[in-house]
Write a structure and sequence with these properties.
Layout lengths: L2 H22 L1 H8 L3 H29 L1 H18 L6 H15 L2 H12 L5 H30 L1 H22 L23 H10 L6 H15 L4 H7 L2 H20 L7 H11 L11 H29 L5 H23 L12 H31 L1
């Protein structure tokens, strides 16, 4: 019964490989093409904008058309977009490629959650979600090593050709396993295509418990190579050797907090203490602004990603009580879409078309903004969830 979740783990692995090649090789790409750090942030933001739109769309679509067809279509789209990076040299070209990549990859997490719901019993579901999602962090771990080696031997464009080959291989894998006996022949589906109702309090409670508290892994895995290169003087080779550590911590966070949510937040629709504990732990990222040590910086970034994974698992566990089973992918799409919107707004804020913090190297403002965001999200969730709980018991 774990085969579909393992297949989706490979899918999320592929998604993050395709997503992170751009970030892992950023110093080399910027040097070769003449893009500025601000333009890099602007182009990266378009991925998150498209990803924001695509998550709820794919979530509703997967609930309606099914995992087999929906995931084959989504991965085909983003594989073509990832491959197209190899043909780009200008800001406009990269911006287009990032946007289309985001449109396709929006199916990743809704698909992973839907797979866990369809293939596993309720008491294993949080761990099933963690398994489906965990491939993403493994992908982010191996990308600097894999893409760095390919780029060093054949040039950075060859790394994107490799992503095209990997995408085709996954499509063949999914075509083989997305059927009985691995997935049920018939599942409960909505009678019509359902869309999120943003007039519902449960939607906003999910948004604020997930999008703001779990923000940090997004910008960290996007801008960290630029910060290491331009802020701390680390070479591209040095980045390749250490950039895998924060996503490893993110993946550990998925599994650790997936287990913790199943054990300590089981049947708890409002685990306030758990959220407050994670919020306090998230403040450690602010210490990054006081050190020039590469080792300490990597540790603090990794810790923040670990806590970000915890917020994701806890928010989805709580959200699963508020939405019916047949809307599982839509629920995940709402959460991931909102997370993507916050990432988009943040990258636009620090990019050339925003306040220009990347170009002016205002790393202190960048990292403190990330640090204080979880507390804001949890505070709003506390208000929304209290009123939501009162309404459900009335």
């Amino acid at each position: 019964m774990w085969v579909p979740c393992l297949g989706m783990a490979v899918c999320s692995w592929l998604a993050f490989v395709d997503r992170q090649v751009w970030s892992a090789l950023a110093p080399t790409i910027l040097s070769d093409t003449g893009l500025t750090p601000g333009q890099f942030a602007d182009a990266s933001s378009l991925f998150f904008l498209a990803y924001m739109v695509a998550n709820p769309v794919w979530g509703s679509t997967l609930d309606y058309v099914g995992l087999r067809v929906g995931m084959l279509l989504a991965v085909a789209v983003w594989t073509g977009a990832s491959l197209s990076h190899a043909w780009m040299s200008t800001f406009a070209g990269f911006a287009f490629a990032r946007a289309v990549l985001g449109l396709g990859e929006g199916a990743t997490f809704p698909g992973g959650l839907r797979t866990a719901v369809e293939s596993l019993p309720a008491h294993l579901r949080a761990r099933g979600i963690a398994t489906s999602f965990s491939g993403g962090t493994i992908g982010a771990i191996v990308t600097p090593l894999m893409a760095g080696s390919v780029a060093a031997a054949y040039g950075w464009r060859a790394a994107f050709y490799l992503t095209g080959v990997l995408g085709i291989m996954w499509l063949l894998l999914w075509a083989a396993i997305a059927r009985p006996p691995y997935l049920p022949a018939r599942v409960q589906r909505p009678s019509a295509l359902k869309w999120p109702n943003f007039r519902e309090r449960r939607v906003w409670a999910l948004v604020f418990s997930y999008a703001l508290p779990a923000l940090s892994p997004g910008p960290i895995l996007t801008i960290l190579p630029v910060y290491l290169s331009r802020g701390l003087g680390v070479t591209q080779l040095g980045i390749n050797q250490i950039f895998w550590i924060p996503p490893l911590a993110w993946g550990i966070g998925y599994f650790f907090f997936g287990w913790a949510a199943d054990k300590f937040a089981a049947n708890n629709r409002r685990p306030i203490g758990f959220f407050l504990l994670l919020t306090a732990a998230s403040l450690a990222l602010g210490l990054t602004t006081f050190t020039e040590s590469v080792a300490l910086t990597i540790f603090l970034m990794s810790w923040s990603c670990f806590i970000g994974g915890g917020f994701q698992m806890l928010a989805l566990k709580v959200g699963s009580y508020a939405f019916p089973r047949e809307q599982a992918a839509m629920m995940s799409g709402i959460a991931s879409g909102a997370w993507s919107l916050v990432n988009f707004l943040f990258l636009r804020l620090i990019g050339t078309q925003g306040l220009g913090w990347m170009d002016s190297a205002r790393w202190d403002l960048i990292f403190w903004t990330i640090t204080l965001t979880p507390a804001t999200g949890v505070a709003v969730w506390l208000v929304l969830s209290r009123k939501q709980e009162a309404a459900s018991t009335a």
